[in-house]
Amino acid sequence: MNPAVVRTVFRTVAIAEAFSWGLLLVAMFFKWILDAEPLGLAEGGVPVAGPIHGGIFMLYVLTAVIAKFVFRWDAKTLVVALASSIPPFATVWFERKADREGRLTAQAGATSAP
Fold first, then answer.
1. Nearest by Cα to 107 from 76, 64, 74
2. Are 107 and 6 in contact (CB under 8 A)?
3. How does it sit in the membrane (predicted)?
4. Rounded CA gap, 49 and 41, in Å?
């Protein structure tokens, strides 16, 4: 796999996962705090935002596992990447940290073959 493509996909999915967290939090706010149905969405939009976030979350997990092999992450890095998907917006923090530390670049001796 091309490391540049994996890096771009990982970064995009990390940002999308954080954005979907925000969408779900807003929907839960409308449902539980305001008891409102904005734009006619039932239960504050949670039935819409929940599956969107769930799908992007699963894509993030898959992308993190692929990145582990492409960038030769150790187990600790993978665990931190996966754990960052639990608190809201932490995937962006992890992506930026990993980029600063050079964990989103191919290491010497890494192959681009599948």
1. 74
2. no
3. Multi-pass membrane protein
4. 10
Nearest Cα neighbor of 4 from 94, 104, 107, 110 is: 104
Per-residue pLDDT tens listing for the chain (114 residues): 899 999 999 999 999 999 999 999 999 998 888 888 887 788 888 999 999 999 999 999 999 999 999 999 999 999 999 999 999 999 999 999 999 999 999 874 444 433
Residue for token pair 């890096």:
7
Q: In this structure, which amino acid lies at residue 60? A: Y
**Residue 8: closest CA among 53, 51, 71:** 71
Query: Which amino acid would we find at residue 85?
Result: S
* Contacts of range 93-97, beta carbons closer than 8 Å, 24 or more positions apart: 94/14, 95/10, 95/11, 95/14, 95/15
CA 16 to chain CA centroid, nearest Å:
6
